[in-house]
Amino acid sequence: MSSLRWLCTAAAAAWVAGCASAPPAPPPALPHAPAAVASAWQAPLPHGGSSSELPRWWSQFNDPILPALITAAQHASPTLASARARIESARAARVAASAGLLPQVDAVASASSGRLLPGQPSVSRASLGLQAGWELDLFGGVAAGRDAAQARLAGAQALWHEARVSVAAEVASALLALRACEAQAAQSRVDSSSRDETARLTDLSARAGFTAPADAALARAGAAQSRSLATQQQAQCDTLVKSLVEVTDMPEGALRQRLAVGTAQLPQPAPIAVSTLPAALLSQRPDLADAARAVEAAAGDQAQSQAHERPRVSLSGAFAAAGVRSAGITSQGTTWAFGPLLVSLPLFDGGARRAATAAAKASYDEAVAAYQGQVRRAVREVETALVALDASAQRQADAESAARDFEASLRATQARQKSGLASLLDLEVARRNAVQAQSALIELQRERAAAWIALYRALGGGWSAADATELLPAVAAQP
Predict the structure, then answer these.
(1) Are residues 79 and 160 in contact, defined by beta-carbon separation less than 8 angstroms?
(2) For residues 404 and 218, what is the distance between their CA atoms, to the nearest angstrom?
(3) pLDDT in tens, 421-455
(4) What per-residue confidence (pLDDT) applies to 3?
């Protein structure tokens, strides 16, 4: 009885000492956007469109094969597979962390038989019961660990959305590059055919003595160079097809058949309205949601480390049905035990617990800095896409005018050259200007579509903070 009284006294003293000491400092609140983030967009905003259409924006990309390619790429993406695995791992970690708040109960069974002393009858024992243990979360360390695990789970799910947006943007960019390459290749073939015809006519004229042999050699050289460039351009297009095969995991033959629809036609994406302010990106981008959840998880780790510097109290108990048989006599009944009541008072550990708390605090500061840097980068990505869109819009009219006028100049020079009023060199210069102007127009169209893709990605791809909870159970079911 005196031992039990001493144990209860020690437990009470530990309780009082723990409660009388200062509780762990609460983790700082989630930081807001950095002060450097402007209150409004500095770049010109595009006209038209709707930000609410972002989740279905790919269907408005004006390329019929793109949605199917995105679906195939998302099913085959190792990045998405890794993101799904991280979600399952985070979900398991959350369950494990939450379990620390509940008693741990085990079913225990035992059986033994033997003779303990010479000359004594054998004894057989058997029991079946329950054994329980519970560590009291006096200072919230276990709850903080559970909250940190929950934050990491939400962050992993947000990164799954980020991976989906990234894969979609990657496929769209690859298809856009292929369409631009096909348009350039078609332009190269037209130019090569025209140069071949010029070389043929010039060679006939040279044989008849009406044209200098040097002009015929120049025409043949231009035709050969044009054929070489056309072959090189086609090789680049074939390389881009190979990259789409890798991303989508589709057979090349089947992929080429589907790509035949819309060959050399650059898509004209639907406009996207940027109606939100820079600070609203915090609820629109899954990568920012992950960074914010990382701050919350680091704060939970810090609180958990602080709780480990405090006293710890744990309880245990057991209940069992037992039977003993010796010398033909059987005794049966129940047994139970409450205790021990274990009190752990940290006295000396060489500064290990305090160092762990300091490390957790440093990790929290690092997460805050990463979060604020991510916010600034997100704003910069939107601003960059807006600048590219505005610049491409301003250049569009001039590029179209240049291509149209250089083409008219080429036709006029061809007519003059056939009449003997222009030299073959004049024709080659006019042709080169027309080809370069047309290539520049195709490249500008590609840049504008790429800027729309960049804006789609910078705005979060239609993700919202509500998706972090609504789609959580569905993630595991994704193929």
Answers:
(1) no
(2) 26
(3) 877 778 778 888 888 898 899 999 999 999 999 99
(4) 44
How does DSSP classify residue 254?
A: H
Q: Which helix (H) or strand (E) holds 318?
A: strand 312-326
Contact 367, 295 (CB under 8 A): yes
d(CA 78, CA 84): 10
Which CA distances in Å does 166 have to 171, 191, 358?
9, 37, 36
Torsion of CA 392, 396, 399, 404, to 10 degrees: 160
Give φ, ψ of 111 to 5 degrees. -150, 140
pLDDT tens-digit readout, 387-405: 999 999 899 899 989 989 9
117-131, 160-174, 340-354, 451-465: which range is least confident on average?
117-131
Calculated CA dihedral for residues 140, 144, 145, 148, nearest 10 degrees: 180
Strand 104-114 versus strand 123-136 pairing type? antiparallel
Name the residue with tokens 């086609």.
234
Q: How far apart are CA 277 and CA 375, in angstroms?
A: 13
- pLDDT surpassing 50 at residue 24: no
Find all residues with CB under 8 Å of 16, minimum gap 6, and list them: none
Q: What value, to the nearest 5°, has the Cα angle with vertex 182 and ends 178 and 188?
A: 140
DSSP per position, 111-169: EEEE-SSTTSPPEEEEEEEEEEEEEE-TTSHHHHHHHHHHHHHHHHHHHHHHHHHHHHH
In eight-state DSSP terms, residue 334 is E
Given this model, what pLDDT does residue 35 score?
Answer: 53
Other CB atoms closer than 10 Å to residue 342's CB: what's the count? 14
Q: Measured between alpha carbons, how far is 24 from 302 in angstroms, rounded to an integer?
A: 9
How much helix, strand and coil, in percent to the nearest 5, is found in the chain?
A: 65, 10, 25
Q: What angle do CA 320, 325, 328 make, to 5 degrees?
A: 155
